[in-house]
Design goal:
Length: 282
């Protein structure tokens, strides 16, 4: 069987010419590959240079004013303009349209922070209830860190079916605010059956959980995303204030987590909109 890529000398050409022609094809191919490799390398280097210049510009925009004034942004960060609203949120929680607050627990110690916990139920469907956990920023140097790990350890729950859940919040046009896009982490959790000291047995508890760090124009469960938003805000001598949000909706042990998707997503949209309207707009 003949190989398609092999060179077959023409009977009209002497063998010496055929050999030369084959060498020329090989050299041409080699030259083409070298040129292509150089082009790719040049394009890759240009991309690296563009990214490097952008980072230098970003660092310079922050460092040069600090060098000139002797006040560095990381040691003297801009003030959090809505700190008063954040402190009020820490004490009073949120009033959510369509939901009734059953009780509020202040200063619930979870890890190294004191959270506010609200037990709420839907007004039109009282059988639907949820827990809303809020941790507002406490000062200009306060940054999101290990809040989700703290909550996992506090509840001592197991989790599965982790996946991102994306939703968009758009306030009334008269408020002149752009829409806010949030990517939260959505998962199923369960706390195994427990026996407390009074020999009472607490059955297994199951929840659909939604978590994210909320800021004025969006939200994400990743601290790196907040850091980027805050870095951009500092260029204008502002801050991206934040609130850690964790929503727990009870579900039946045998229930599919997707059965709670609509109510969890709806509640997430309501919470983000309320934060944008009452906490982040100042």
């Amino acid at each position: 069987m003949e190989e398609r890529n092999s060179f077959s000398p023409s009977p009209l050409l002497p063998l010496s010419f055929a050999s030369f022609f084959g060498d020329a094809v090989s050299k041409t191919t080699e030259t083409f590959l070298m040129i292509s490799a150089r082009k790719l390398l040049r394009q890759y280097q240009i991309s690296k240079i563009v990214v490097l210049l952008f980072l230098l510009l970003l660092v310079g925009a922050v460092a040069i004013p600090g060098y000139a004034t002797g006040r560095w942004s990381w040691t003297n960060p801009p003030p959090v303009t809505n700190l008063k609203q954040l402190k009020t949120l820490r004490c009073e929680g949120l009033t959510l349209p369509g939901w009734e607050v059953i009780r509020i627990l202040n200063n619930v110690q979870i890890g190294g922070h004191r959270w506010l916990v609200q037990e709420i139920k839907e007004i039109q469907h009282p059988q639907r209830s949820a827990l809303l956990l809020l941790l507002p920023q406490n000062g200009p140097k306060d940054q999101p860190q290990l809040e989700w790990i703290d909550i996992d350890g506090f509840h001592r729950w197991q989790r599965e079916a982790d996946r991102p859940l994306r939703f968009t919040v758009e306030l009334a046009p008269i408020l002149n605010k752009p829409q806010s896009t949030v990517t939260a982490q959505f998962f199923r959790s369960w706390i195994p059956q427990q026996t407390i000291p009074q020999k009472q047995t607490i059955p297994q508890q199951n929840f659909a959980v939604l978590q994210w760090y909320a800021w004025p124009n969006g939200g994400s469960p990743a601290t790196s995303r907040w850091f980027w938003e805050d870095s951009m805000a500092r260029l204008s001598n502002r801050r991206a204030s934040w609130v850690a949000v964790s929503i727990l909706v009870p579900i039946k042990p045998e229930a599919d987590i997707d059965s709670s998707l609509d109510i969890v997503k709806s509640l997430g949209e309501i919470v983000q909109a309320k934060l944008m309207l009452e906490i982040f707009r100042f």
